[in-house]
Write a structure and sequence with these properties.
The protein contains ten helices and twelve strands. By secondary structure, the chain is an alpha/beta fold. A hairpin with a 3-residue loop joins strand 10 and strand 11. Helix 6 packs parallel to helix 10.
Length: 296
């Protein structure tokens, strides 16, 4: 190769590499560009069968997915990922976790191959100041996450990460930590809590063979009404101190993991922001499917 040709090739290669790096940088910056403020959701996920059945709950999830702006990414807080400490999933290809038993093989065959999001994992880690957030490469999407997003975004083309629940911390801690996530709403991130605010599997008493047939114990109905009253009034402190709300509420929250995702959602409500209750039904006697949408 002649010297002049070598120099031309070297210059061209250098310019090409710089262009590739610049393009990658631009894409990274685009991820962080401010967008219209995204809504926040709390979804009563109930039975994992809602992921594959056509019923009032799966249809409501589908409707929500169509009505809200398409997110750049999803931050999911699921009742089914409890850890000592706080973690976010940070792998590129999260696995679909079938964390249940006794259901048809059809449900175990479901895969939700949405990509992960390293930039959202890092951004969430940097955003949360209350604690050190670990980057997890082993978890994936549990059914509290994918049974919801499979209905809302069936194409599985929106990057998603999960944020774990630190089981060693009280409700006030989770509420305060959630507030630190507020800025993500303006970066195209759909923050979604997934659980059930009344959830006592030990006291299920179905009126029919259909788990989703509407039915609630008197105490479950009472607790659901107490929760809704405070939610609609924007009165969050009693909801944080839920153990002082009486016997009905204590029966409804024997363990906190299904309730805490609700607090993550409520913590992100801004003053005068719209709040809507959806799927406000009790099933199995002791599970509330009530969902909450803020903004949007």
């Amino acid at each position: 190769m002649k010297r002049i040709d070598f120099i031309k090739t070297a210059i061209l290669t250098t310019l090409t590499l710089k262009a590739i790096k610049l393009n990658a940088l631009n894409k990274l910056v685009e991820n962080y560009d401010e967008t219209e403020k995204m809504p926040v959701l709390f979804v009563g996920h109930g039975s994992p069968m809602n992921a594959i059945e056509d019923n009032i709950f799966s249809r409501e999830m589908k409707r929500m997915g169509k009505e809200i702006p398409k997110p750049k990414a999803i931050l999911m807080i699921s009742a089914h990922w409890e850890t000592k400490g706080t973690f976010v999933t940070a792998m590129e290809k999260p696995k679909t976790i079938h964390d249940f038993g006794g259901f048809p093989q059809t449900l175990f065959d479901v895969q939700y191959p949405a990509p992960g999001s390293k930039w959202l994992a890092e951004e969430t880690k940097q955003t949360i100041k209350k604690t050190d957030v670990g980057l997890d490469e082993t978890w994936g999407f549990d059914h509290g996450g994918w049974s919801v997003t499979k209905n809302m975004f069936p194409e599985a083309n929106i990057p998603m990460i999960q944020l774990s629940l630190d089981y060693t911390k009280p409700a006030q801690y989770h509420y305060e930590l959630a507030k630190e996530l507020a800025g993500l709403r303006k970066k195209g991130v759909l923050i979604t809590g997934s659980g059930n605010m009344v959830h006592n599997l030990g006291m299920i008493a179905m009126k029919s063979a259909d788990f989703n047939a509407p039915y609630g114990h008197d105490w479950a109905i009472e607790a659901n009404e107490i929760f809704k009253k405070h939610i609609l009034a924007g009165n969050h402190q009693p909801l944080i101190n839920y153990s002082s709300l009486g016997k009905a509420v204590q029966l409804s929250i024997p363990t906190p993991e299904h309730y805490l995702p609700l607090l993550y959602t409520l913590a992100l409500k801004e003053e005068k922001e719209n709040l809507t209750l959806l799927s406000d039904v009790l099933v199995g006697g002791s599970v509330s499917m009530t969902s909450v949408k803020i903004g949007g």
